[in-house]
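Before the break, one more example. Copy the sequence into your notebook; we will annotate it together after we see the structure.
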Amino acid sequence: MPADMFHPLSLFIGLRYARARSHRFFVSFITWVSLLGVTVGVAALIVILSVMNGFESELRSRLLSLSSAVRVEALPGQAPDWDRMAKDLSALPGVKSVTRQAELQVLAVRQPEMLAVSLRATQSAGDDDLERLVVEGNPRDLVGDDTLILGRLVADQLGVITGDDVTLLVPTVGEGDLPEVRLREFRVVGMFEAGIQDHDATLAFANFDTLIALGAARSGSVGLSIQVNDALAAPAVALEAARTLEAAGMTGVRVRDWTQDHASYFRAIRIEKTMMALILLLVVAVAAFNIVAMLVMVVTEKRTDIAILRTLGTGPGRVAGAFVTQGLVVGWAGVLAGVVLGVLLARNVDPILVLLNRTLGLQLFDADVFYITRVPSELHVLDVTLIGLCALLLTAVATVYPALRAAAVSPAEALRYE
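Here is what the structure looks like once it is written out:
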């Protein structure tokens, strides 16, 4: 008995139609356009979302390079036992390090320029993150009482270079809670460049003991800086830290994580990713409409075949199934090809762009203009899965109308004019 007899009739006919070369040229052309459209749409969606994931990861890395994943700050008028808190929080799962932190708002003065600056320090000011971003000098030089590391844009606006002096105007609270102003000279020992406006144009780093001496405890903020092993787990660590401090009776503080401090950045990225995904899904939708057009023309072309099948006793459901099969073969072949192509491109975006730059002489990210000179790409399995499933669903829906139209063909009407 032939092996084909073991296949369901609808599947057999659908696969036969999909492989057939007897279609008219225009039908075959639309078929290939549909398959190519699905492939390009799926691949483009995977690549674009992977690149946006890469930029999001790069932004998160730069934001956290100079700030805390989790912060514990004292409420006004409170003087917590920081050493005890640091000891308890260091034992929490997922915590990499806990250090003291201080921040103070000052006014940097270098005639004729004046600029508001956030003066920040931790007890590990010479850590790897700051050292990685320093473009001039050495963060380990901050051991001096009157030394500064400025953001690149701060230095540019003040017109200073490494080795210059800057005057800081420090607002403090004196006796009787009266405001006072202190002036202090600092020497610039380095500059950092994080590539983020909020850091490079507003931040400066100094020695921790210096900030305490300048009155950060009264006029600024002091607390603990908690670094975690997984940045995405910071909200959970912050929640556990708050519970631990409350259980130990250590009140008078508040706990915040980086997702609260930088929520606007990542909310904007999520909106952009969603809109980009919807726009690129329209490419797949257009290809799905092409599948509809192709199947409708095939149904018109095969009306005689449909009538003969119906006359031989084939039910409407099996006829419809044959055309659903044909549409799914075209659509799902395009989805599979798009997923494979998209994954390959997403994994090799930067080398491909380097090759294009060398071949065509293009420079997409000039180092003199952009902070990021490469295109980061981060491929997420969940994104690929969701894109594939959405594309499969769209192409499956595209087969419904032509299949119903095929099932509704009347054998008598179809054969009358043959």
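The CA atoms of residues 328 and 396 lie 6 Å apart. Strands lie at 70-74, 95-110, 113-122, 134-137, 147-151, 165-173, 179-192, 203-205, 221-228, 253-257. Try to locate both features in your own notes.
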